[in-house]
Request: fold
Amino acid sequence: MIIKNSCIFLVFALIAFSISAEIYKWVDEEGKVHYGEKPPQTENTDIKTIKIRDNVDTKSASDALKEKTNKLNEKNKNRKKEKADQKLAKEELKKNEALCEKAKKNLANYQHPRVNIEQKDGTMKTLGEEERQSGIIEAKDIVKRACNY
Reply:
């Protein structure tokens, strides 16, 4: 029974693929338009061929599915990379903002007339005017770099 059904299916499939994929259109002597699977036997040179089916793509469905899956995987990979890059950029921005705030506070400390700086040995030192001015210049430079001004 299965073999019989398979043979019938195979015969119908072969018939379907052997059918002509072209239709002919022509106008007779009376001006009537005709369509047919075969061109007329007349000497009419105004016969047009109409294709009703393009050539079938020979690429198998599994190849097409693999190709589409690869493209989707690549897009997903790119999205994940972009998301990770955005996360890193946000972290870098927060880090730069913290550095900027610290540099601004340091500059504000140099703006006072009496600036006390803690030295490495833990003692406090009051800066002279020249040291304070050079500190202001250096602090402004750091603010400019850290805050992107």
The chain has a mean pLDDT of 81. Strands lie at 22-27, 33-36, 48-51, 116-118, 124-126.
